[in-house]
């Protein structure tokens, strides 16, 4: 089962091995892992903890941030977002088309980047910058 929260993700890793193994693999303190798994913290863990988990389990950092509860506003319908972006900025068509060969998670993140770039440029143009 794919985790939908950081708590679930960490608990799955602990269940697959042990708290001691996860600590050794990630470099994250046992108590911090326990707090994340049991939702005992006062908020999301710091970025260093997320980076360690990301690196140890080869999960993209953006996914760790989402698991920690931050909505990065990545598009759900990647194909629709690609169509929208290429309609707004036709010169991106070939780059976006090349991304279709990427795995779904990477494609989604790349499309989100292009969408954010287009929104930013639009705002700059509206503000006369």
> Secondary-structure element order, as H and E?
HHHHHHHH
Can you name the CATH architecture of the largest domain?
Orthogonal Bundle
The coarse silhouette is elongated
What's the count of strands?
A: 0
- Biggest sheet features: none
Structural category is mainly alpha
Give the DSSP E fraction (strand runs of 2 or more residues).
under 5%
Share of helical residues: 55-70%
Mean pLDDT: 87
CATH topology of the largest domain: 434 Repressor (Amino-terminal Domain)
Q: Specify the CATH class of the largest domain.
A: Mainly Alpha
Radius of gyration: 18 Å
> Unreliable stretches, pLDDT < 50, 5 or more residues?
none
Q: How many independent structural domains?
A: 2
Question: Separation of termini?
Answer: 47 Å
Structural features, described:
- The chain has 2 domains: 6-67, 434 Repressor (Amino-terminal Domain) (Orthogonal Bundle), CATH 1.10.260; 78-126.
- It is elongated and about 50 Å long.
- It is 67% helix and 0% strand.
- It contains 8 helices and no strands.
- The chain has 129 residues and is an all-alpha fold.
- The mean pLDDT is 87.
């Amino acid at each position: 089962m794919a985790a939908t929260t950081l708590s679930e993700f960490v608990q799955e890793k602990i269940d697959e091995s042990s708290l001691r193994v996860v600590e050794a693999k990630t470099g994250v303190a046992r108590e911090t892992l326990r707090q994340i798994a049991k939702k005992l913290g006062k908020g999301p863990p710091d970025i260093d903890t997320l980076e360690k988990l990301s690196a140890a389990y080869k999960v993209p950092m953006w996914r760790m941030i989402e698991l920690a509860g931050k909505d990065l506003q990545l598009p759900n319908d990647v194909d629709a977002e690609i169509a929208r972006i290429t309609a707004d900025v036709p010169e991106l068509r070939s780059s976006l088309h090349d991304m279709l060969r990427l795995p779904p998670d990477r494609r989604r993140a790349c499309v989100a980047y292009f969408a954010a770039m287009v929104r930013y440029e639009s705002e700059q143009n509206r503000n006369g910058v």
